[in-house]
Amino acid sequence: MQNAVILVAVLGGVFGLVLAIAGRKFAVDTDPRIDEIAALLPGANCGSCGFAGCSNMAEAIVSGEAPDAAKCMACPVDNQKAINAIMGKTTDSSGPVVRKIARLACNGCKTNAPRTIAYEGIPDCHVVAKNFGGPGKCNFGCLGFGSCEKACPFHAITMGENGLPQFDYTKCVGCGICVKQCPQLVLYLADAGDKIHIMCNNRDKGKAAMVNCKVSCISCGICVKSCPQQAITLEDGPNGSLPVIDYEKCIACGICVSKCPRKCIHKVEPLDTSKPLILDKPESKTGCASCALNGSCGSAQ
Prior knowledge:
The chain is an alpha+beta fold. Among the domains are: 32-86, 3-methyladenine DNA Glycosylase II, Chain A, domain 3; 100-193 and 270-294, Alpha-Beta Plaits, CATH 3.30.70. The chain contains 11 helices and 8 strands. A two-stranded antiparallel sheet has the order 1-4. The protein has a two-stranded antiparallel ribbon with strand order 2-3. Helix 2 (32-40) crosses helix 3. It is elongated, with a radius of gyration of 26 Å. Mean pLDDT is 83; it is low at 286-301.
């Protein structure tokens, strides 16, 4: 018995020595700049930069695959400058030229599009869209169950009492996570300075559209005909058509807003982009909200 214990101890020591030698021999040196850069990135792992996460982007910057951190919408300019300094670059990164923010293409609130059923199941837009189609008559509008709020890593979205998402633009960085996960496709990214917005995603026409929502687009084309800049066209799809604004032509005169008989075109005040973002500590999302970004589960688009 004593011999067996000694043998096991000797073998353990030998194997430990072999593993230690192998660990030193085959160790992969990590560039310390990767950790320094990763610490300057927001840590949200939102993927809006095109990389799997902040650590992956830090590796890409060090390897030269990514020129700098300018693609990170949530990375402050000062942090971008610090990252450039780590990489030995003398040019300063000034961040995105045009700030992007999330907008909602729906005004089907509880008043404009009353709910027709009292849904009491799982409060998730993907589940509802896949199995029930929604609690209201419009099949194209916001479902109101807050999957966008749950997915936003920057806490920039809350569900309002009217049943629609509300955006805090002091926190929204334009990462696009809410856009990618919305099963109804009613969220989109827009330039912060854009003033005219189509507040509808409806594809039904005529009577059906009018009955389903008080402020639904009926594809009448009055906005197209009344625009003096020819900045609006009707985009045809398999389920109908919707107005699309060419912002390079749009001068925000507001004629389309006043002419729209359904009041589904709105003019909003542009954001003051000179004010700094107020970023809470972002969350790295996992689970259904994360799966919805890449369609890896059956509930995503």
